[in-house]
Amino acid sequence: MPLDTSTYSLALLRLDGRRWNELRRMHAQISTQPTADGSSYLEMGNTKVICTVAGPAEGRRAGGGGGTAGDANAMVQVEIGIAGFSGVDRKRRGRGDKRTSEMQMTIANAFSNTLFTHLYPHSTILITLHVLSQDGSLLAACLNASTLALIDAGVPMSDYIAACTSGSTSSYSSNDEAADPLLDLNGTEEQELPFLTVGTLGAGEKVSVLVMESRIQAMRLEGMLAVGVDGCKQVKEILDQVVRRHGKRILLESVKT
């Protein structure tokens, strides 16, 4: 069933009641898995992800997900497990799934350039992601959850990687010049509208991740990217609040003891 986009121009509201530049509800926690070196739980709307980090540890894992590094640097490896009940179709993805492998490689490349891997030569940093629910912005949620888990693990990095999605209210075939950009698409919108995933470094405008698989007129791309970068700034503030809140709680606990 095609997505009814007529409400965009009439009420300036989307199907879930948000305006074009509003993020969905975002909730996150860190140190959720005591046995892991670093861990986090993140919700972006109804997309829910658990992330754990192991390492830096000496030696290399055979096989596994995407990973990049030289011998003088730590290798960043990513493994993504998508639960069969996470989506509407209840499709179980195997280890050789192409889309999952692409996400693993994208996340590994992003953090290989952000983490100070030169401090841990001949080591491995393993990021494991478990997707519990999918409702759009899956890659962005994985990147944000990985950032929090790596901070919890104490792995030094140059800055946060904050990510979100942005799209357009019109498809490529309609060629609507009055199409407006949208921020943080949900699952229904992603199925019908062109969108991209963008990740920035910190609160600036330096783009570290940009993935787009949809066809779009070039004149719309700049607006979509600008909205996405602005959304990443909002996400960064939320992630920073989560880290600061956790740090204050640890300080209060240490003072009491």
Amino- and carboxy-terminal Cα gap: 59 Å
The geometry reads as globular
Q: Gyration radius, to the nearest Å?
A: 19 Å
Order of strands in the sheet with most strands: 1-2-3-6-5-4
Strand segment count: 10
**Element pattern in H and E:** HEEEEEHEHEEHEEH
Please estimate the helix content. Answer: 25-40%
Instruction: Indicate the structural class.
Output: alpha+beta
Uncertain regions: pLDDT < 50 for 5+ in a row?
none
Oligomeric state, counting identical vs distinct chains: single chain
How is this structure best described in words?
The protein is of the alpha+beta class and 257 residues long. It is 32% helix and 27% strand. The strands form 2 sheets. It has a 6-stranded mixed β-sheet with strand order 1-2-3-6-5-4.
Salient structural properties:
single chain; 257 residues; alpha+beta; four-stranded antiparallel sheet; 5 helices
Summarize the structure in short.
The protein has 257 residues and is α+β, with helices and mostly antiparallel strands. The chain is built from 5 helices and 10 strands.
Task: Give the topology.
Blueprint: H1 6-11, E1 26-30, E2 38-44, E3 47-58, E4 67-68, E5 75-82, H2 98-112, E6 123-133, H3 138-153, E7 161-168, E8 181-183, H4 187-192, E9 195-201, E10 207-212, H5 218-256
Parallel strand pairs: 5-6
Antiparallel strand pairs: 1-2, 2-3, 3-6, 4-5, 7-8, 7-9, 9-10
